[in-house]
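User: My collaborator sent over this chain with a note saying "see what the structure looks like." That's all I know about it. Can you take a look?
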Amino acid sequence: MLFRSETVDGKNQIVWHNKPGNFLHVWSLDADWIWQSSSGNINPFSPEAFELEASFQSDLNRDGVIG
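Assistant: Without extra context I'll predict from the sequence alone. Here is the result:
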C-alpha cells in the first residue's frame, strides 16, 4: 500500500493507494493529524484521481504522469 500525506488547501490529508484492490482512498485529518473522515474507492485513472495527483504532486497511479 502506497500513501502520501499533505496539507492541501489548509486541510491535512492522507491518500492511500490500495494495490490489491487498485483504488485510492483519502483520509481527512484535523490540525493534530487525527483522523476525522474518509472517502474512497476512487479509480486511480479517473478525473478525481488526477485531481488528487495534482494536489499531492505525486504520481499516485504510477503511470509516469502527475495529473
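A starting point for your reply to your collaborator: The first helix runs from residue 47 to 56.
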